[in-house]
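User: Can you write out an input/output pair for a complex, sequences first and structure second?

Assistant: Here is one pair. Inputs:
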Amino acid sequence: MSTLFSRRLVVVSGKGGVGRSTVTAALGLAAARSGRRACVVELAGLCALPPLLGLSGRTYAPRTVAGRLDVRSLTPVESVQDFGERKLGLGGIVRAVLGARVTGAFLEAVPGFQDLVQLGKVENLISEPLSSDPRYDIVFLDAPATGHGLTLLASAQAMAEMTRVGPFHDLASRIADFLTDPASTTVVPVTLPEELPVQETLELAAQLGDALPTLGGVIVNQVERPHFPSQGWPAVEAALTAEPGWAPWLQLARRARARAEDQHTVVQHLHHALSAIAGEVPIVTLPRLDPADPRGTVDRIASTLAGETS
Amino acid sequence: MTDVLICCGLGGTGKTTTAAALAIARAMAGQRVVVLTIDPARRLADALHLPLASATPTPVPLEGAAGSLHAQMLDRKRTWDAVVRRCAPDDATAERLLANRYYRAVSTRLTGSHEYMAIEALAELVKSGAWDTVILDTPPTQHLLDFLDAPDRIARVFDRSVLSALVEPGSGLFGAATRRAVGLVERVAGASVMADIQEFFRLFGGLSHHFREQGRAARAVLSSERTRYLLVVNARAPERADLDGFLQALHDRDLHLSTVIFTRVCPEPPAPRAGDALAQALSGIPDADQWVAAFATARQQAAFAAEGDRLAAARVAGRARVAFAMLPDAPESVKDLRGLQALAAHLAL
């Protein structure tokens, strides 16, 4: 993934539970440590990223950690207010109107509008930052679960087609162009070394490229690597069966070897199927780390990813 | 009377597998069971080896079952169009709605239309009276919250006063606010969009009665005493940021969690042995050092996995006093019906 950090926007996608937020935080940290001014963004009022980077609560405004990494948690309402103020100079009015019942209903009735203003905010951060905003070299977006995330990315295109003309059409087209420009934007799915998550990642890869961003790499998280020697298991088994008390250890080893083999098979399948779908795409595997120490996990994954992206 | 089991949880937890196993368990025990998924990834089809398109309940052959098992994959587009055709006051209105650009965008492409249709499908299945149990496999948690909100959102969106105000802004304070809102939308989105949207709402006004009724029926289903919420937790998934949010969301709606099902539960690693005991036991074996190191790594990984299980259990147990079920870690089990049936034996729910 040596070209990953030359992009402006990296969309980290994946289902809940695969460690997507952990990987997003770690990528941000790795980019910041490489000297880039970086930002990690989550949407829809979620609050997964801040605790992973030692912050509490979510804020729309950026907070800086590790000197060069900003953390932002967007919501649709704050993004709409921001959009209104910046693009239309409608600060007070927008706020008043947003309070009105009818606009609330309208916002809810046009779900793509909510997605679009949040994506618009992300694009603005990169393409036309306010004088008070930092100039980000790269932004990492913690994108919602795979199916939903694709809909989110497709909504810019859908909105651009639906509106045809007007300032909103311009915004939607600009976002769609930005998302589909391979030099600007790329998607990095996070998956687990298991059959169904990998299958979904392949389905995602097959859909990317057309009206959607291109694939920048795949991260396989929580891989177990016991590194048992490839030969000699029967001798080990015999030695440990001969002595009392080793039965649980034999069970542990059998299980670990079987899992490692399953995972290896799945990752190999990912390699083959992915190259058939998308050509040469880098695949990075990350180890299973201590679940009781999420911040330490982010830190260690950041170090691994720093090696992969340099 | 129909039991409704709503399987909730993050993606990748084995939720779909669990829903299928629950359905199999009940069908084996003699019930007429249908399992419904609104997940766009359609994982249930994979697990049950069903054809992808099954917008109506499709039978799943189940050897030796005293009852029957059906599965249904929600098809957004087809369901929306069917609702429009069924509920429009006349064919002309239906055709104009189906041709409306805003309708086409909302019904097929944009985020959020799933939930409206899931409500419709769930309520229809319950209303039919043809099932002893309806099992719903929900999308990942963030979506689930949308799902729980859907009945109220339908009610708000199709609130007659709001609709008529949007289409024909009147006088007074509310009218003025509406005209400003419409003006803002026109300025942002262009006048032709507003025209499409207004036509959409004008045409949809004729259907609003249906949606209010659906909203009522859906709320009744979601809060019925016969509806139980099951939370499926991958005991080892480290990312649990929205578990609290989910429990809170249920609590806020006065809905109650019935059971937490832990999937992929890991065994505890063996107790550590004195210093070099393993090295001694393996002395004389080629690559003994590598074997000892690999055992240590495997034990470490197993300890992380078990620790993850404990953390998840402690967390959930601390938040909700509910029954637990544990599904063993069996990665090969989800590939076919036989494996699912073996899992089902752990779920006497």
